[in-house]
Amino acid sequence: MTSSPEIRNKHFVEKMYQIKEVDGVAYADVIHSFNKLVGKWPDLQEKHYTSGYWWLVYLDMDVVAFAGLVPMEPFTGYGYCKRCYVHPDHHGHGLQFRLLSAREEKAKQLGWTHLISECSGDNLWSSANFMKAGFRRFDPEQAWGEEDSLYYIKEI
């Protein structure tokens, strides 16, 4: 006996995530609360909210991920992918990669020429997403991350 296509496909329905660019100042409380989920991340500075660009990922009415993009000071035309966090219950849906794409599109709109970021050396998923998105590893002259940080750059 075969089941109807509707019943067979019920188990494969993809969750409908919505990525929305939001105002950093208006959504500072939400951004701050997500930033606090990773204990080793320092607090964001006021300039990150006011001169940065922020995205929230929604599933229905719940925020399940966030990411930011800020100017890479003091370099003109460079953006820094500032934070990205996807709640563990929502891993495996390509959200981090989609947030990288959203930030790259924004950087292009702003006329920026490069994106830079870093992640912990043991963060294999983030490293894989950077490589998949076309970033390459590099060693900065002056490291700014943790001792085991890996650094990535992409010309856009």
In short:
With 156 residues, this protein is of the alpha+beta class. 28% of the residues lie in helices and 30% in strands. The chain has one domain (5-155): Gcn5-related N-acetyltransferase (GNAT) (Aminopeptidase, 3-Layer(aba) Sandwich).
Number of domains: 1
Instruction: Write the H/E string, N to C.
Output: HEHHEEEHEHEE
Give the structural class. alpha+beta
Whole-Å distance between the termini? 54 Å
Radius of gyration: 17 Å
Task: Give the CATH topology.
Answer: Aminopeptidase
CATH class categorisation: Alpha Beta
Task: Explain what the structure shows.
- The protein is of the alpha+beta class and 156 residues long.
- The protein has one domain (5-155): Aminopeptidase (3-Layer(aba) Sandwich).
- The chain has 5 helices and 7 strands, in the order H-E-H-H-E-E-E-H-E-H-E-E.
- The longest helix is centred in the middle third of the chain and has 15 residues, at 95-109.
Give the helix/strand layout.
Blueprint: H1 5-10, E1 17-22, H2 28-35, H3 46-51, E2 53-59, E3 62-71, E4 78-86, H4 95-109, E5 114-119, H5 124-132, E6 136-138, E7 150-155
Parallel strand pairs: 4-5
Antiparallel strand pairs: 1-2, 2-3, 3-4, 5-7, 6-7
What tags apply to this protein structure?
alpha+beta, Aminopeptidase, 5 helices, 7 strands, disordered N terminus
